[in-house]
Amino acid sequence: MSRIEIIEESSAEALGAGVDLDLKPGEESEVLMEVEGLSKRFCRDLKKSLLYGVVDIARETVGREPRKDWLRKSEFWALRDVSFKVRRGESVGLVGKNGSGKTTLMRILSGLIKPTVGRVMTKGRVAPLLALGAGFNPILTGRENIYVNMAVLGLTRAEIDERFDEVVKFSEIEYALDAPVQNYSSGMTARLGFSCAIHTRPDILLIDEVLAVGDLQFRQKCMRTLNEMRATGTTFIIVNHAATLLLQVCNKAVYIETGKLLATGEAEEVIDQYETDLFKGGAELQKSRKASKPVASEEFELDAVEFEQDSLTTRDLRTGRVAALRLDCKVNIKCPRVHFIIKWLRLPSQEFMTGMEETLVAQFSSNVEKAEFWMEPGSHTIRLPLEPLVLAPGSYQVSVDAFDIDDKLIASRRSPAVTSLAEIPCRHSAFYQPHTWQLEAKPHQAGMH
Amino acid sequence: MSLKSGHSEVRVYEAQSALREPLQLLRSIFRDLFASRQLALTLAVRDVKAQYRQSILGLAWMVLPPLFFTVGMTVLQRNNVVSLKGPEGIPFPAYVLVGSSLWQMFMSALNGPITALISGKGILTRVNFPRETLLVAELYKILFNVGVQLVLILLTLLWFRIIPGTTIFLFPFALAALLLLGTMFGIFLAPIALLYKDVSNALPIVGYVWMLLTPVLMSINDLAPGGLYATVVRFNPVTPVLVIARDLLTGLPITHQYSSLAVLGCTLVGLTIALLYFRVAMPMVIERWSS
What angle do CA A405, A410, A414 make, to 5 degrees? Predict the structure, then answer.
C-alpha cells in the first residue's frame, strides 16, 4: 500500500460527516443556500467610495436607512437581482468572464459584505477558501498556524487537537511543520490552507480560484477529496475558468455576466452555454467533452475502467512498476467475438488552459492482437497486466470502446484521470524504457598488445 | 454571526440594517463576544509570540520608553528647564513614571482597535468570524503589556520606598475604567480610520495635545484655578480616571472618586453604543477596503 493511499483512506473517513444521501427518485435534499433578489452596488471612484462609506455608516448608525435601490454618482451594479438555490450534496460551478461579479457573489455568500438589496440564507458551517492561508502568520510555524487558522474558521481547541494529525497528513508537509510559514513555497501554503479548510468539515465550502496552486498530484488529490466530500453531503461552490476542472467536480452551474444571472442548471448545459459565448471554438470543446460520457447498449455495458497497482484500485500510479488495467463488463445477452480499442490519452497538464487538447499516446486494438472474447451473460473482468508501466510522469485517461462481431460500437467508457509518477527520474523522456546498466569485461584477445 | 456551529445553524444576510432590532443585535454581539473568547486568546498569544520572536530585547521594549521618558524629564526638572514638581511625599521620577505609564496605557487602549483591524486585514477580508474577536484579542495583548509595565512601576515604587495603602485593591477598577475609556474612543475611530488614513496620521498629534491637557506630569492641585487651561483639564474625561488610578497606586490621598465613577458609567454606556456601531460599520468598511 502506498503512502498516498493510506492518507486518502483516513481523510475520506474523516470527511464523511455521516450524512445520509440515499434519496428516493424525485425526492429533493434540503436547501442549504438560498439567494433571493440579490443586488450589490459598488463605486468605481475611490474617493467617492470612501465618502459614501462614511455617509452610509453614519446613516445606518442613527437608524435612518436610505433608499437603496438606486445608484449614486460613479456607482454601478456589481450584482443585479440574482436568485438561485443550492441543495445539500450539490456542487456548483460559478462561471462568468472576469469582472462579471463572481468574487462579489462569493464574498456575499460567505457573509463578508452585505447585500445592497435582497437576501442570502445559508444553513450549516460555511468554510471560505477565498484565498488560501488567510490568517497565516508568516513568522509562526506551520504547527502554530494550523491552530490559529482553524480557530478562526470556528473550531474549538479540543476539536483542532483531535483533527491535527489528519490535517498534517493530508497536507503532506510533516517535514516543514516546525518551520516558519514565511519559508514555505506558495504550493506548501496552499496545501496547508486547503487541508485546514476541509478538515473543519463544512456543510458548504466556497472555493474561489484557489485550486490552481499546488502541483498536479496535489490538485488531483483535492479534486478527489472534493468528490468524496460531495458524496457525503458537503455542498460546494467553485469559481474557476477551467471548464474541464469544473465538469470533473460539479453537477450544477451558475453563469453570471455583468452582475446578471444568465443561466443556472445542469453543469454540462450551463458551461456549454458559457463556452459558446466565450469562444467561437466552443462547439469543438464541447464535442470532445461529450465523447467522454459513457455509452452502453442493451447487450453489453462497461461498468468500470480502473487501474490497479499492488492489488489495489488506484489513481496514483508508479511508473516502472507492475500495474494493471481492469475492465469490468456486464453482459446481458450472449456476445460472440467482443473486441476492444483502448486509447491512452495524455491530459493537458494545466487545467486552466482550456484550449489544449489531450494527446493520444498509445492505442491497443484487441482484434489486431488476435484477442477476441466470447462472453456469456453475467459479470466479467478483463485484466491487462502492464509489466511494467511505462508512462512518463503526467496525467492520463484511457478510453475503452467495445465492439461486437459486426464492428458495431456496443459500449464506451473512460477511466478516471490517473496520475503517474516515476520512481526513477525520467525527464526528457517520452516514456520510461525499463533498463539496467551492466559492465562487462571484454575477453582478452591474443595478438593484441 | 455565531461561532457555534451545527448542521442546523442558519445565517441570513439581508440588506436591512441590523439596528432595526437593537436589543436582538446587542444580544448576538454579547453572545459572539462570549463564544469567541478562546479564539481571541489564540490570536493574542499568536501576536505576542510573533512580536517577540523577531526581537532580542523582547519584553524590555515594554519598559524602555517610559523609563527613558522618566529619566529625561527628571534631568530637565533637576536643571530647572521645566518647573514641574510632583506633590509632597513622592519623588518626582516615581511620579512621572506612574503618570506617563498610565497615559501610555490609555493611548495603547485607544490605538488598540485601529491597529488590531489594520493588522487583521488579511483575515477580515477573507473569513467571516465575529469581528469583535479582534478587539478582545487586542485587549488581551494590552493587558499583557500593562502587566509588564506594572511590574516596572512596582519595582520603582519599592526602590523609592513608597508603600501603597490598602486602597491599592481598588486600583484594578480604576485601570479598567482607563482602558475601557480608551477602547471606547478607539472603537468609534477605527472604522473611519480604516477608510481614511488621516485618522492614523492625526492620532499622534491629538495624543500629544491631549496629554498636555491631562495631569500626567503635574498634580491637578498645582493648576491656577479658574483659567481656561484648568477648566479644559477638569472637563477632560481622562483626568479623573488617571488621577484616581495614580492616587491608588502611590498611596496619595484619594480625590475624584465621584467624577471617575461618572466617567466609568458613561464609558460603559458608550462602549455598548460603540459595539453596535462597530457591528453595523464593519461590513461597509470591508467592502470599501478590498473592492
Answer: 130
CA distance A165 to A149: 15
Distance CA(A448)–CA(B10), nearest Å, equals 93
For testing contact with chain A, the best of B127, B195, B277 (most A CBs within 10 A): B127
Quote the DSSP letter at residue A438. Answer: -
DSSP string, A128-185: EESSTTTT--TTSBHHHHHHHHHHHTT--HHHHHHHHHHHHHHHT-GGGTTSBGGGS-
> Shortest Cα distance from B121 to chain A (angstroms)?
9
Query: A83: number of CA atoms within 13 Å, CB side?
Result: 6
Residue located via cell numbers 456476445 = A335
Q: How many alpha carbons lie under 13 Å from residue B277 in its C-beta half-sphere? A: 21
User: Which residue from B42, B196, B287 is facing A113, i.e. has the nearest CB?
Assistant: B287
Cα separation, A326 vs A330, whole angstroms: 13
Rounded-to-integer distance, Cα A413 and Cα A445, Å: 61
Of B242, B70, B79, the closest CA to residue B160 belongs to B70
Q: Are strands A409-414 and A359-365 parallel, antiparallel or unpaired?
A: unpaired
- Which amino acid type is present at position A259? G
Nearest CA in chain A to B32: A154
Which residues in chain A are contacts of B20 at CB distance < 8 A? 63
Q: Which residue of B has its CA nearest to A125?
A: B5
How distant is the Cα of B288 from the closest Cα of chain A, in angstroms?
A: 7
Q: What tens-digit pLDDT sequence spans chain A (449 residues)?
A: 333 333 333 333 334 333 444 444 555 678 899 999 999 999 888 888 888 888 888 888 877 776 777 888 888 999 999 999 999 888 999 998 888 899 899 989 988 888 999 999 999 888 888 765 566 878 888 998 898 888 888 888 899 999 999 999 998 889 999 998 889 888 888 888 888 888 988 999 888 876 666 677 777 788 888 888 888 888 989 988 777 778 878 889 999 988 899 999 988 888 888 877 776 544 555 555 555 677 788 888 898 899 998 888 888 888 888 999 999 999 998 888 899 999 998 876 544 444 456 788 889 998 888 888 888 899 999 999 998 888 887 778 899 999 988 888 899 888 887 878 777 777 677 888 888 888 988 887 665 55
Please, are residues A115 and A104 in contact by the beta-carbon 8 Å criterion? Answer: no
C-alpha atoms less than 13 angstroms from C-alpha of B151 in its C-beta half-sphere? 10
Q: Is A112 close to B39, i.e. CB distance below 8 A?
A: no
Phi, psi of B221, deg, nearest 5: -70, -20
Answer whether A418's CB lies under 8 Å from A395's CB: yes
Task: Determine the Cα–Cα distance for residues A88 and A251; give it in Å rounded to an integer.
Answer: 12
> Cα–Cα distance between B250 and B165 in angstroms, integer?
8
Which of B287, B289, B290 is most worth mutating to test chain A (most A CB atoms within 10 A of its CB)?
A: B287
Contact by Cβ (8 Å): B215, B236: no
User: Burial, B178: exposed, middle or buried (Cβ in 10 Å; 0-12, 13-18, 19+)?
Assistant: buried
Distances (CA, A) of B153 to B60, B75, B95, B160: 14, 19, 10, 11
Of A61, A117, A156, the CB nearest to B15: A117
Query: Shortest Cα distance from A254 to chain B (angstroms)?
Result: 20
pTM, 2 dp: 0.74
Three state DSSP letters for B121-132? HHHHCCCCCCCH
